[in-house]
Amino acid sequence: MDNLYLLKFGGSAIRGKGDMMRLSAEMAAMMKEGKKLILVHGGGPEISEEMERRGLNPVKVCGVRVTDRDALEVAETVLRRINADMVGCLRESGADAIGIPGYFCTLCEKKAPIKASEGGEEREVDLGLVGEVADVDPQPLFDLIGQGIVPVVYPIGKDAAGNMLNVNADTMAAGIAVGIGCSGMIAITDVPGILRDVSDPSSKIDSLTIAEARALMEDGTISGGMIPKVESCIKALEAGVPEVRMVNGKNESGIMSEGRGTIITG
Ligand SMILES: Nc1ncnc2c1ncn2[C@@H]1O[C@H](COP(=O)(O)OP(=O)(O)OP(=O)(O)O)[C@@H](O)[C@H]1O
Ligand SMILES: [Mg+2]
Q: Which residues have beta carbons under 5 A from ligand 2 (an ion)?
């Protein structure tokens, strides 16, 4: 589908009605220009806070949440609430929207244990009930988009046996972006882009090749939540998504304006 863009926001970048209305207004304006949109969102900090409220211990390894049954239940509850809020804001901004879980349009499978290196020591970590996108059914998304409706996806997947899985929102976004063949993917996060020094917002890298991005993951410049984000961008590019960008959701003067953030190129 031409002129179709997948946007993804994280829970730190867009949080609360003010942020959601700012994003919704930009999305409504993009739709007026003739762009078609799909939105995928996470909810990292709010999920962690709710886990703590319930006496659970939030743990992330390489930017991905270790998920047991309790964590999955919290993630689903919190993500559904954020989803409903975002759908409400889009409608208030004049953009028709419908909230759907990832399993409405994807088939997921449990992610294999990952190799995590901490303090120079490499160990294998089983992330638990964490999924990856194995297959996408684009038709339900095309049906909604064809009617001028924005699908707003929260990243809970299911495997072939119907077991629910928590999927990192960047992973879900790239899986869907590849499966529907969109014109571009924009990841909205809480930093200006990929930084050479995480503590220095002025160290933003304007553009990176896949090879350069891989090198920055290798040498540890890219860490934490930036890892699944960059991996997702690479996956999308390699599968033929022409344009992949990372931008700052806190930018009051326009989140998705041209020339903002970091572009990764093939
Ligand atoms: N080189 C880097 N450049 C920029 N950010 C980096 C880098 N390395 C690590 N990070 C971290 O990655 C974070 C973004 O990923 P994070 O997963 O926290 O956010 P998100 O995916 O937008 O939201 P969510 O909380 O929903 O997952 C930044 O806030 C920053 O702390
Ligand atoms: Mg994240």
A: 10, 225
Q: How confident is the model at residue 232 (pLDDT cuts 50, 70, 90)?
A: very high
First to last CA, the chain: 21
Instruction: Quote the pLDDT of residue 118.
Output: 67
Domains of the chain: 4-265 (3.40.1160.10)
C-beta of 228 in contact with ligand 1 (< 6 A): no
What six digits make up the tokens of 163? 């077991």
Contact status, residue 220 vs residue 39, Cβ threshold 8 Å: no
Q: Which CB contacts under 8 angstroms, 24+ apart, belong to 191-197?
A: 191/226, 191/248, 192/247, 192/248, 192/251, 192/260, 192/261, 192/262, 193/246, 193/247, 193/248, 193/260, 193/261, 193/262, 194/222, 194/226, 194/230, 194/246, 194/262, 196/221
Sign of CA dihedral 196, 198, 200, 204: positive
Say how far apart CA 212 and CA 210 lie, in whole Å.
5
pTM above 0.85, yes or no: yes
Residue whose tokens read 């009617």: 147
Ligand showing the shortest atom-to-Cα distance for residue 75: 1
Q: How far is the CA of 226 from the centre of ligand 1 (A)?
A: 4
Query: What spacing in Å lies between the alpha carbon of 230 and ligand 1's midpoint?
Result: 10
Cα angle, residue 133 at apex, residues 132 and 135 outer, rounded to 5° = 150
Token pair, residue 95, equals 């953009």
169: helix, coil or strand? Answer: helix
